[in-house]
Amino acid sequence: MKQSLTLIPTMREVPSEVEARSHKMLLRAGFIRQSTSGVYSYLPLAKRVLTKIEKMIQQEMESLGAIEIYLPIIQPVEIWEQSNRYENFGKELMHFNDRSGRHLLLSPAHEEAVTMLVQEGIKSYKKLPLILFQIQTKFRDEIRPRYGLLRSREFIMKDAYSFHANNECLENTYNKMVQAYSSILYRVGINYRIVQADSGIIGGASAEEFIVPSEEGEAIIAFSDQSNYAANIEVAEVVDQGVISDEHLKSLEKIATPDVETMEDVCAFLNMQPSNCIKSLLFKADDKYVVVLVRGNHKINEIKLRKVLHAKSLCLANEKEIQQLLGCSAGSIGPIKLPVDVKVIADLAIQSVRNSVAGANEDGYHYIHVNPERDFAINSYEDIRYIQEGDPSPDGNGSIRFEKGIEVGHIFKQGTTFSETFNANFVDDNGESKPIIMGSYGFGITRLLAVVADKYQDEHGFIWPKQLAPYDIHLMPTNSDDDVQLSLANELYNILTFYRFEVLFDDRNESAGVKFADADLIGLPVRVTIGKKASEGIVEVKIRSTGETFEWAKEELVDHLNEFFRSN
Question: Which EC number(s) does the record attach to this protein (predicted)?
Answer without folding.
Answer: 6.1.1.15
